[in-house]
Amino acid sequence: MPEVFHRRLVQTAKRAVFAGMGDRLLVRFVLARLPRSANVEVTTACNLACPLCPTHIVPRASRTLGVELVQALLADAGGALKSVCLHVQGEPSLHPRLYDIVRLFGSYGVEVWFGTNGMLVEKQLDELFDSGLDGIAIDLDGVDAEDYGRYRKRGDFERVLGGLRALIAEKARRGAVKPFVQVQMVMFSYNERRLPEVRELLDGLGADRVHLKRPAYELDLEEGRRRGLELEPAVAERVESAANAFLEEVEADNTDLAYSRRATGLEGQLYRNRRLCPQLERATVLSDGRVVACCMDALGTTTFGDLNEEPFDQIWRGLRHARTVQAFLDRKLSVCETCTLT
């Protein structure tokens, strides 16, 4: 059975089962079953300055995930975990021990993926292959340097494109099965207007998968402040000005675009509108060791445990986690209000 079909079948079956569960039973179900997958943030640092990305808005010190915290997670959840994505915010390739972390998860039989802006791919080719990485998703958000640079501030189109081609060529040279290579593009209006060129460019690279994405974020400082975000006035003015200028340029209010963040017909697909958000069955660990409800909560407003303070299994099966899941069922998790995951 093809993997995608199997995954969709399981998701459909779960939704049907969850629909008939009372709140108390559903909370107990989530807590009783250690997660099969996880989002693990390896760093908050990034080498780009994209105008809508919360990495540059959230007031967190630049930090990297300690290998000891990975070991702590695996000590309790390693037997259950099947896959992990090394990303919440930040650029994973900047972590000085990224590939040690990949190997560590791999030693427990955990499939490892991460997403990257691709700036360091060519430089890290040998480590990437030698680590046993299972999959990598690389962003190429434009068909040429001009369009790419509209959003990927400080990025280098030719460098990313060259890294992609070098990765795919090296994989062929080695006769390697891994990593699975996904090339993706955020479909802002200027990319959508050039859709035939987008498909020609991405399909021509020879990646294992091409993924066209809806924009996921839109800067909302008022919402951030409501959730505890504090910014210096000068910083707030700078990031809001950059974001507003970009949104105006890309016609953010145009819902007729197929890939618009506000595209019609998505409400029923949004995770926040489901009986149980799939992210609540995943573990999400921030780079400082805090365990939160989902990958959209870089602020840690839904924190229900800390790997520096207690074992993961106790965190997962604890009262604070139970209250977090119940808060989602009651539609009281503020992080869900602006979530665009489908």
Total strands: 9
* Helical content band: 25-40%
Give me the side-by-side strand order of the main sheet.
6-5-4-3-2-1-7-8-9
SSE string: HHEHEHEHEHHEHHEHHEEEHH
Rg of Cα set? 20 Å
Poorly predicted segments: none
Gross morphology: globular
Short description:
By secondary structure, the protein is of the alpha/beta class. Helix content is 39%, strand content 11%.
Q: How does this model look, in words?
A:
This protein is α/β, with parallel strands linked by helices. Helices cover 39% and strands 11% of the residues. The chain is built from 13 helices and nine strands. It has helices at 3-19, 23-32, 67-77, 98-107, 125-130, 145-151, 157-174, 189-192, 195-204, 221-226, 233-249, 312-316, 319-329, and strands spanning 37-40, 83-85, 111-116, 135-139, 180-186, 209-213, 283-285, 290-292, 305-306. A nine-stranded mixed β-sheet has the order 6-5-4-3-2-1-7-8-9. β1 (37-40), α3 (67-77) and β2 (83-85) form a beta-alpha-beta unit. The protein is globular, with a radius of gyration of 20 Å. The model has no long low-confidence stretch (mean pLDDT 88).
